[in-house]
TrEMBL record:
Residues 6-247 form the Far11/STRP N-terminal domain. Residues 215-309 are annotated as: Disordered. It comes from the Eukaryota. GO terms for biological process: cytoskeleton organization. Coiled coil: none annotated. Belongs to the STRIP family. This is Striatin interacting protein 2. SMART domains: DUF3402, N1221. Residues 260-279 have a biased composition (Acidic residues). Residues 215-230 have a biased composition (Low complexity). One of its GO terms (cellular component) is cytosol.
Amino acid sequence: RGRAGSPARWKLEELGVGGGGEDQFLCPTFLLGVFDECDTEVDVLHWSRHNIFLLYDMGLFTALLELLSMEIDNSQACSSAVRKPAISLADSTELRVLLSIMYLMVETVRVQTEDDRPEWREAREAFKNELGSPLYNGEPFALLLFTMVTKFCSMNAPHFPMKKVLLLLWKTILFTLGGFEELQEMKVRGRERLCLTPLPEDSIKVVRAMRAASPPASAMELIEQQQQQQKRGRRSRRPLVKQDSLDTYNERDPFKNDDARDEEEDPEDTDSGIEGEVDPLDRDVIIQPPPPPPPLRPPTERVNFPKGLPWAPKVREKDIEHFLETSRNKFIGFTLGNDTETLVGLPRPIHESVKTLKLHKYVSIAEVQIKKEEELQQCPLSLGEEEVEETPAEILYVGMLPNLSQYVIALLKLLLAAAPTSKAKTDSINILADVLPEEMPITVLQSMKLGIDVNRHKEIIVKAISALLLLLLKHLKLSHIYQFEVVSQHLVFANCIPLILKFFNQNIMSYISAKNSICVLDFPHCVVHEMPELTAESLEAGDCSQFCWRNLFSCINLLRILNKLTKWKHSRTMMLVVFKSAPILKRALKVKQAMMQLYVLKLLKIQTKYLGRQWRKSNMKTMSAIYQKVRHRLNDDWAYGNDIDARPWDFQAEECALRENIEKFNSRRYDNSRNSDFTPVDNCLQSILGQRVELPEDFHYSYEIWLEREVFSQPIQWEGLLQNP
């Protein structure tokens, strides 16, 4: 009583957090392993993990959640932040401490190690179920964080530290729903449950085994190379008509030094592509530190590359039907609809073709879900009510559905504000509220440190949003295809496709190799070792790493999101063509990383048929890379441009039909008022009169008045009941 400040500050003082003086960061220090008493980085991490599990068992997370809810509902802090002309770190001290502690707990408990105690493993499962269940005011913990994001983007709470909120939201969804390896296991179990054929390969393992291709050079780069050679008095040995052949699986030694290359080799291979054969995304979701470089091979030893294509081809049922329809029209003169078994009257080669197509036929879980949904829509009474499994993804979708468009728009606003290509506008949201100090820097060193911190801040926001959206799309697609389509359509309508293309319309090589970090300030290095003196030269030099793993991770996630949005959607593929994405994506091929190149080539493949014969003729190296790296559909004529499904007048109808199916699905499964229309009617007079009706306590006082008003005073036309209506 009588203390100034927010309600959360009072509670934090009782917990030893943010109370001022020496006790201000007592709880975070305890969570970080009491590093002042540790001698090595391993000891710091060990005791940090031990203390976090100890505090979780004592119920700290529940107390922190209560404090976070109090701070979110603190209208005084929100109104004062709205009125302030400039918001700084001081406006979000309590929130940042709370979110940092919660992030440390979620991330530490989430990661499983071999030496975990049995009680820690039980605590991990309990914490996972707790975060994914609607235990916090009837909704999962992730929805509380989504609410913080929307409040920040609507300018009702501009002091919220968005970087920490987004990181905690990403890790919470990663913990509750699972990463890509867990997703792959769930997909295998789902196919077994539906009695479908097993997956032809493990996509994670295939991508890890891929090797990067040499990036193609554009015509402008070739012209510049010619001009440079002419200035040096050398004649160019390369025509400008087309690209050279792909050198991914040739006999060239990739460990050979670039400077020692023979002059007969391609000049395209000596451009600014990142030379590195180490796969930086060994864990897909969590970027690990780069592994030690492999030992150099003798110059005479050749590298044995895998023979054949990396992916098994797939064929849809629709593709077989289309092939048979074309063949019957050609050889017989009529069709048999969707019949794929009758081959009477067709020549022997067609029989062999159909046999080969059926051998590689792949039925996805999404196709089964769509077919089942059509049956439920046609026969709602005879099939009964669908049994929906209460998975964490289902619970999260149900909670997000009422405000889904707001969540998507808020995330894309933050992604736009953090993109390196976006220009600062007066009406844009301020994402730097939790990085700018109260007093601006006055020295060159302070300015450089702040500049690095701001760039790093934006990169982390992009990383968190891209990983969050990709996880949501992949898990919702496995939960139900129409849940995935709902989020996808909201993203498309909110201009996610041009936003991602705008993100890549930059010098992607500079972004991938950016060095916006100060290694000596990284935890736990900074608390164990002596801090060297920071100078402007040391900050400008940065670290010695070749990639910025954070930015590479973000780029791959955004490319995968773009693939998810445009796959099998001709109208959205045409958006890629209209926005001239081909040259933007071709520049992204300069990054010599196999996973990133794979998803760029996928995006180029789906629009190749619309780019014209001249583009395909002058980009044969890219076409070869698509052939070698991207999965084949046996009767997909992606390289020729005569696809019947790509008729221009079907574009708008496709989105409208999809929207209609989505609304039917949501209405059938989640609209409780609609389900009352199908409730059976009781027509038995004795049953109806025998039902007990709950009446209010004071009803018998006004019963006579009600009888007079509702029964006796109402004229009844008895003759009308006998007439035929």
